[in-house]
């Protein structure tokens, strides 16, 4: 399956699917640049997420969903690093195991939650915000999650989700990213799979109703 990419937000593919037997090079969705209108300060992204078998057969996997994003490529054009602010969606429970890192703002540990948590990314590093959890239970297979993310140009970013019929809303998480994090100034959108090991069977995920822009 070819990777779902578009440099023009007016013609971007608005749905994205990954199956467990796809080539790893197809495991991301990219809009390289979303033009920011004059006076706009907040980029937004929303989509419907659904997994079939991912939580059961690949419980170590998660997605990095990034606004103000830049996909850094090497000299051969291959993706080599991520930058931006957004969420980790899926398994991030291993982040709780690290208590040796101290965040620049004084929060101990490397933060994290199993379901959905705010995260910032830059070449050579990343940070999950322990207190910025919007879903602290595992994602469930066969269930629709309606995800919303905002990222301001002053480093504030937030996320929340609606479940199933959009009547149950999670708590909203909002943080201001540390200025010590060397996030590259950019305006793209990225959805990238970080695939875990030890898979036990086939799975698929879909991102539908993808919308994005600035206000």
Task: Itemize the secondary structure elements and their pairings.
Blueprint: E1 4-6, E2 16-19, E3 28-31, E4 42-52, H1 54-57, E5 62-73, E6 79-90, E7 116-122, E8 125-135, E9 145-152, E10 156-163, E11 168-169, E12 173-176, E13 188-194, E14 204-214
Parallel strand pairs: 1-3
Antiparallel strand pairs: 2-14, 3-13, 4-9, 4-14, 5-6, 5-13, 6-7, 7-8, 9-10, 10-11, 10-12
Characterize the biggest β-sheet: 7 strands, mixed
- Globally, the shape reads globular
Rg to the nearest angstrom?
Answer: 16 Å
Portion in beta strands = over 45%
**Which structural category fits the helices and strands?**
mainly beta
**Proportion in helices:** under 10%
User: How many H/I helical runs?
Assistant: 1
Query: How do the strands of the widest beta sheet line up side by side?
Result: 1-3-13-5-6-7-8
Characterise the protein shown here.
This protein is mainly β. The chain has 1 helix and 14 strands. It has one helix spanning 54-57, and strands at 4-6, 16-19, 28-31, 42-52, 62-73, 79-90, 116-122, 125-135, 145-152, 156-163, 168-169, 173-176, 188-194, 204-214. The chain has a 7-stranded mixed β-sheet with strand order 1-3-13-5-6-7-8, with no helix packed on it. Strands 2, 4, 9, 10, 11, 12 and 14 form a 7-stranded antiparallel β-sheet that branches. A hairpin with a 2-residue loop joins strand 7 (116-122) and strand 8 (125-135). It is globular, with a radius of gyration of 16 Å. Mean pLDDT is 83; it is low at 1-12 and 98-112.
């Amino acid at each position: 399956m070819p990777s779902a990419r578009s440099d023009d937000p007016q013609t971007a593919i608005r749905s994205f699917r990954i199956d467990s037997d796809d080539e790893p090079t197809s495991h991301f969705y990219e809009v390289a640049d979303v033009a920011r209108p004059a006076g706009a300060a907040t980029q937004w992204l929303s989509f419907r997420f659904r997994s079939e078998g991912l939580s059961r057969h690949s419980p170590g996997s998660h997605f990095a969903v990034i606004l103000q994003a830049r996909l850094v490529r090497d000299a051969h054009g291959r993706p080599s690093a991520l930058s931006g602010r957004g969420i980790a969606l899926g398994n991030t429970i291993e982040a709780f195991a690290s208590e040796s890192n101290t965040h620049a703002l004084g929060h101990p540990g490397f933060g994290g939650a199993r379901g959905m948590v705010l995260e910032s990314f830059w070449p050579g590093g990343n940070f999950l915000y322990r207190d910025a959890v919007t879903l602290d239970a595992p994602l469930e297979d066969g269930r629709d999650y309606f995800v919303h993310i905002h990222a301001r140009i002053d480093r504030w970013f937030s996320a929340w989700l609606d479940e199933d019929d959009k009547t149950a809303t999670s708590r909203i998480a909002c943080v201001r990213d540390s200025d010590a994090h060397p996030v590259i100034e950019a305006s793209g959108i990225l959805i990238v799979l970080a695939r875990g090991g030890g898979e036990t069977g086939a799975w698929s995920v879909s991102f539908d109703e993808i919308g994005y822009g600035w206000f």
